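Lab notebook, bench 4. We co-purified these components, and the gel suggests they stay together. Before we commit to crystallization screens, I want a quick structural picture of the whole thing.
Request: model the full complex, all chains together.
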Amino acid sequence: DTGVSQDPRHKITKRGQNVTFRCDPISEHNRLYWYRQTLGQGPEFLTYFQNEAQLEKSRLLSDRFSAERPKGSFSTLEIQRTEQGDSAMYLCASSLAASGALSAFFGQGTRLTVV
Amino acid sequence: DQQVKQNSPSLSVQEGRISILNCDYTNSMFDYFLWYKKYPAEGPTFLISISSIKDKNEDGRFTVFLNKSAKHLSLHIVPSQPGDSAVYFCAASATSYGKLTFGQGTILTVHP
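Here is the predicted assembly.
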């Protein structure tokens, strides 16, 4: 299976700790997105990469959040000094530039619980 | 400011009948519209999409209709199957690079 892969699937952390999530996109996809989903809501856009360049960041992405895609392949999302409000499902998606928005494929997500 | 709205939190349909899921949007800059299906504890699965130059797109049992003047789109599933039971999200994009704005989702239950 060559879909979008996210690791870990679940993470429980204590408030104040740092966490890092990894996303491996579909191999030929050069666009990568991070979204966050809370209970009862649709996913909310966090940030977007084309190759290794981070081209857009949502205002939802506070200074405690940082995302990287160092070689234009996998990406990491780090949250520093976690807060209970960070508890959510973090979703990664990828797409091919030529297809634009019409076929963004999501991974299974990382569920973060901050206790 | 909810730019994409799915006003029906849930929909219940009998197996074999048509399911119609609705979505409204307010941003006239949206040019691409997508529907996703989501099972619990999984990421959204892409179903079907449509661009603003079309008013209909069909893929098997799934058809999406777009009414730009009304800023409304709908997803028709015919015939509905129990395996279609899931949360359905509509999403829209104003850009060519796929930053999506999602609705809140509609829970579809298809009864055998």
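Chain A has no helices and eleven strands. Worth comparing against the SEC data before the next meeting. Chain A touches chain B at residues 4, 6, 31, 33, 35, 40-45, 48, 50, 55-56, 91, 93, 95, 97, 100-109, 111 (CB under 8 Å).
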